[in-house]
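note to self: the first set is below, dont mix up w the second
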Amino acid sequence: MHHFTLHTSKTIRDITIPKHEDQSLWGAWAPELAMEHDFLLHGLLGISALHLALCATDPQERQHRTVTAIQHHDRGLALFRPRLGRITAANNDAVFAMFCLVVFHAFGIQRSGDAPVERLRQVLTLLRGSMAIAKGDYERMRRSRWSALRPPLPFGLALRLPDEMEDALSALQRGVGRTTSSSAVDAGTAEDETVYARSIEALRENLLVAHLFPFTAPALMLFPMGSPDAYWDLLRAGRPLALAIIANYSVILHRQRVNIWMGDWGKVVVEAVGQALPQEWRECIAWATREIAEHNASPQARQ
């Protein structure tokens, strides 16, 4: 808990809370909530242990800390699940904090291994599920101190992204028609075309927020939350345009790579997509590939 208060909380704060908002939420208020809710206490201890594991240079220490993290995380989840059907004014703030910790745990525990695109799909699917449940009591959350996680979002404004981002989105939009072409391999349906169009629009909104409000929770969440359920099925099936879309989203993760929870997620996903895509689809990830190449010398992660 001492490590969480001094160190881990800062890594979570840096990627979720704008600098002009209350900076004590994770370092002071979350531990106070944890003293009243055992599931959150185990969540904090687990994420702190996982942070220590990610920072460890000794393999044995890393393994020991990871096992401890999983034990606390599993125990916290066992206590947490029964609360999901009984979210009240008394536990709402702790429940929302636990949702956030579950997502950070997923980002950290899935950091290494094969099939990075599938691992990221699983993490973002978990984020979608967690936030969808939390969204059910959105008004209460909006009136709580957790409202600091939401900067003023520029919805409804005719704002233009930087040219390179607009070009990337245009390339994706050109790919939509190609997915239903009779000459395309694994040609999709008209419904797929609608799914892709909605997903690209969700990506546009996410890129805009990430451009205006980097290192905030919406900068990570808008595309996963705003894209249709069917998109994630297309991604799981390895459809080229679905892969290209997730590669462009991953640039957002790459730009936040100084944070230990993001690490090299963006880089490995873009590279994996680049290896999987047929040549005729490479235009759709040209911007993402350039971003990774230009910033390949990753700065030291904030630990």
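second set (the one i keep forgetting abt)
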Amino acid sequence: MFSNLLKKWRAGREAWAGLQAFNAQPRAAKRCVFYAETAADWAYLGPVAKALQARGERVIRITSERDDPVLAGDDAFFVGFGAARTVLFRTIDADAFVMTLSDLETFHLKRSVNLVHYFYVFHSIASTHRVYREHAFDAYDTIFCAGPHHVEEIRKTEAVYGLRPKRLLEHGYGRLDTLIADIDARSKPAVANAMPNVLVAPSWGECSIVKHCLEPLLETLLAAGFNVTLRLHPMTRRHQPALAESLLAKYSPGGRFQFDPHINTTDSLLGADIMISDWSGAPLEYAFSRERPVIFLDTPPKVHNPNHARIGLPYLEEEIREELGRVIPLSDLPVVPEAVRELLAETAEWAPRIRAARERAVFNVGRSGDVAAEHIITTLPAR
């Protein structure tokens, strides 16, 4: 108990020091400030930040994760999750404040007392009106939309709730662009007759495979002789810190089970022959980047907005599943291995369907970072 208190005290002290160091930066340096709750956020924010730097803009990165690799570089500051972060949000004086944190103004993180332009970058291609909270995006000035569905949904939400119109930009999805680039650079020929590598990538919360059938699913896949990699959502790891270790102890001795702790890297996605997921955003990223089908286990839908029906629009993550793979009821877990084999045999047939779905659902594939950077620059004052 004492060690935990000491750890929290040290983190708090470092957070206040990080805030002080950020505030000590000259105002002219704070044209473009990015905030990440965890290191995983840079998978979505990173392409935009890099594109700005390529155009000569100085970018400051702020993170709440003590072990975030960005802290090893210049212009990066740690503020933690406590009071220092709350003060940062309330007092920041910057031209552009860019993040993938939803629910600004809903809880304790508020807009600054200073004049700041707030940009939101999506960390999921999923629709806005069911998997996010009811007022998740109301407080932003500009929203970088991943696809046409985001534009339609947010405009409809503004009309239903009588909200001020926001600046909605046809952005795209940086995580997808990074995955595609990594695949192009690192793809390798398939090994003939190798056992399939199955990536299990659950979402978190009540809709998650973790809540419904994780161990029976792993046992079914391993019994079929597959190699299995598990990639847990960061929120699952936060709320169940012992889960990964217990699963490794139970299943890794067989040599065909491994756990991938690096959700913001691409290694497990590149190595997977097929993905199994639920209502996570991960299967859309996998299918759109690898052009390979996905198995969706039909857990209850992810619902964070109980009033989602007010918007009266369909949900991309629900409508698109049949275009990206196969939906299997939880009661049919025993058929999953056969479904894996069938979909792998049909991969070439799925590729054009998936590409067509991607073109309809995502803006600016391959160049979203550049598009966003140009939009941000147009809001900045002249130097």
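remember for set 2: The radius of gyration is 21 Å.
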